[in-house]
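Bench notes, afternoon.
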Amino acid sequence: MLSQTPLTFAPPNATHGTKMTGMRPRYQLGVIGLGARAETFAKQLAEGAHPRAKLFALCDMDEDRLQKFCDYCGIRETRRFTDSREFLRQAEMDAVIITTPEFTHKDVAIEAMQAGKHVYLEKAMATTSDECRAIIRAHRRSGVIGYLGFNLREVNLFRRIKETVDSGVLGQIIHLSGSEQLSVAHSASFMRRFHRRSKQSGGFLNTKCSHDLDFMQWLVGHQHRIIKVASFGGTNVFLPEKGPIGRGKSCHECPASIQRACPYRDQAGFVFPVTGAKPIHKTQQTEVYGGDLCVYHDDKDIVDNQTVIFEWDHGVRGNFNLQLFQRDGRREIKVWGEKGLLEADTSENIIRVIKSDACSRASRRPASEGIEQKIENAPGGHGGSDKVMLKRFLDAIENREQPESGFAEGLAATLLAEKADESRLSGQVVKILPNEYL
């Protein structure tokens, strides 16, 4: 995707092409890497969802995909690039939204910052903690804004969980438990794209669950660090020997009888276009986007289930469980404190706070008494968080303040996923040293 010609460094305080609309600046944003996440952000900008910003340019190395993306999204006037270097040289472009595959994040993010562009980087931050640290070092030199797209932080339900924990109603936090289960179709989509190889994605925990791992660390507070990790997991279903006899290498090669019966056949909803009836696969790079590759192939090394346990430096403990193959996708979170329990489930969008027996006796309330809140999602993608994240990014640019969801937090999530896989493969409890957080 990236040529090797060095970029000319632009001053970090440059306001390339920033225009004034009334008394407020109108920022020009580019989007690079045209997949499902790019669809969300490009449409927001093209349709004027953010008065302070407009879509300036789109970039993807695949010209055919670039054309199909613009056609599908109804984007006609925006500048288009297939060369990332030329894209980043555009002086009028203030900021870049990076939605390329994870294995390109380090190079694209660093070169964008060297070009003086503010950077919105979609999760996961990178494939390894070393790549994350390289991004952080470049960011410190650049002076631009760096935002990490952890969407759970901006979902109403999860923000209310954070507010409740911070309020002190649970008292001293003792333990956190989180889980994510993926639907059948969602699970299968990772097995046929670049994510299927840990070298390209950082592993399933990193590529899919880094925002879950971030959320749990955000709840405890990033002033505390996870210091020990242990994990178990593996592949139990997506194995070559589990596939039907006579299947093809791809869905379109399968006999009709097998294809009709297969719950994992290729379908839209988790790839571009998100809202379309049929996926639009990359024509030049099926190695990256996978086409309709059979999920039972043998060239992958990611897990289809995993459990992680961890401990913070101040004694709080937690666990996270990843499971696939369910009818519906859902997340659950529980937080145990000295004074009570909080539990939430995205299938109900309800938060329950149950006071401990001791607190109930002290207040002469029934031991079973609790507080229940129904939380409504905001409209839009990812429970309304996609629009809020872009707003947070624009706020940070306008205020010249680094956002709460930044690259240090991105490193912490990828580091936890990385150590979990190290433990899973070695069978050992793995320590995280203070200097690994940079």
